[in-house]
Amino acid sequence: MGLFDFFKKKETTVQEQQALDTGLEKTKDNFFSKITRAVAGKSTIDDDVLDDLEEVLVTSDVGVTTTLKIIERIEARVARDKYVSTSELHTLLRDEIQQLLAENNSNDFHNLEYGDHKPYVIMVVGVNGVGKTTTIGKLANKLKQAGSKVVLGAADTFRAAAVDQIKLWGDRVGVKVVAQPMGSDPASVAFDTLRSAVANGDDVAIIDTAGRLHNKVGLMNELTKIKNVMQKVVPGAPHEILLVLDASTGQNAIEQCKQFTEATAVNALALTKLDGTAKGGVVIGISDQFKIPVKYIGVGEGVDHLQLFDRKGFVDSLFKN
After folding, report:
1. In this structure, are residues 195 and 233 in contact, taking their beta carbons and an 8 Å threshold?
2. 302: annotated binding-site residue?
3. What pLDDT score was predicted for residue 106?
4. Nearest C-alpha neighbor of 260 from the set 219, 208, 221
5. Cα–Cα distance for residue pair 124/51, rounded to 1 Å
6. Is 208 known to sit in a ligand binding site?
7. Is 130 marked within a binding site?
8. Does residue 261 surpass a pLDDT of 80?
9. C or N: which end of the chain has fewer Cβ atoms within 10 Å?
10. Distance of alpha carbon 307 from the chain centroid
11. What tens digit of pLDDT does each residue of 147-177 get?
12. Is 201 annotated as contributing to ligand binding?
């Protein structure tokens, strides 16, 4: 199976669905316990239930803007159908969230075509501590298991630990890592990585970048320089700018997304650490607010716990009894 076959995968495996169910347990327990309290003693969906539901969604880190949109849709359904019992609320909410994710990921990840790019270049951005380098390692493993040749570029040269960590991941999953001494020019590392990828016929090159958000101007200049240098080797690179966010930080992840999308042309998102948080609702809010596809989710610490985001599987798992 080659790179493009891997990315066109249509169905979630049983093992992946089980990992997703386990990874979302904290979010699901938190979410449904709040909904149960909101409808206690109520037989129909009235204004009080909707007010309580609004609070549930906001405190589950769906975000105010997205929450209001969901509430308005449910209000319209209730008004149209005249009588809607509270027992139908789960189904109603599930339908609206499913539809919202469908609208905001019009280029569904599983059907996305990558064309003839070789190497396909992914530049990974995000602040320190979100699981950026770990996500790179797990993605490299996933691609390699699919039969693709992968090379990693250690362009976060401001922290020795970052370079060491990506080298460890390279050793662990068996892919080449291009690195230079700490303090080297990140653009130079990216240039060398792509030159190596072209020379060796690699399918994918994944470039790590410094996890700093010191200021938008400085970040923009740094990332622009890296992109310009890469394009000298591979025209059109990077083909994907992947922003890694820690789901457990809730609304802070949304703020980071805002900062990075203002600094560079992010076109893909990875949300990590869903298994360790009750704030999984942030997936819904980020998807809605930024209209950028969530492509990967981290649902555990294992090397195989990075999943392609399947919106139907996500919602099915979230609402599974």
Report:
1. yes
2. no
3. 47
4. 219
5. 39
6. yes
7. yes
8. yes
9. C
10. 9
11. 899 999 999 998 888 899 999 999 999 999 9
12. no
142 is in an annotated binding site: no
Per-residue pLDDT, 46 = 85
Per-residue pLDDT at 31: 78
Q: Say if residue 128 carries a ligand binding annotation.
A: yes
Per-residue pLDDT tens for 14-51? Answer: 777 788 888 888 888 887 778 877 777 778 888 888 99
Residue 133 counted as an annotated binding residue: yes
Q: Is the pLDDT of residue 4 over 60?
A: no
Q: Is 273 annotated as a binding residue?
A: yes
Closest CA to 135 of 223, 6, 225, 246: 246
Query: What stretches of the chain show up as alpha helix (H) in DSSP?
Result: 3-7, 14-23, 25-39, 47-59, 64-81, 89-104, 132-145, 160-173, 186-200, 216-233, 251-263, 282-290, 311-318
114 vs 197: CA distance, rounded Å: 17
21 marked ligand binding residue: no
108 labeled part of a ligand binding site = no
Reported pTM? 0.89
> Does 127 show up as a binding residue in the annotation?
yes
- HSE-up (13 A, CA, CB side) for residue 311: 25
210 assigned ligand-binding residue: yes
291 is in an annotated binding site: no
The answer to whether 274 is a known ligand-binding residue is yes
Q: Look at residues 314, 320, 269, 289 and name the one whose alpha carbon lies nearest to residue 131.
A: 269
Q: Is 187 annotated as a binding residue?
A: no
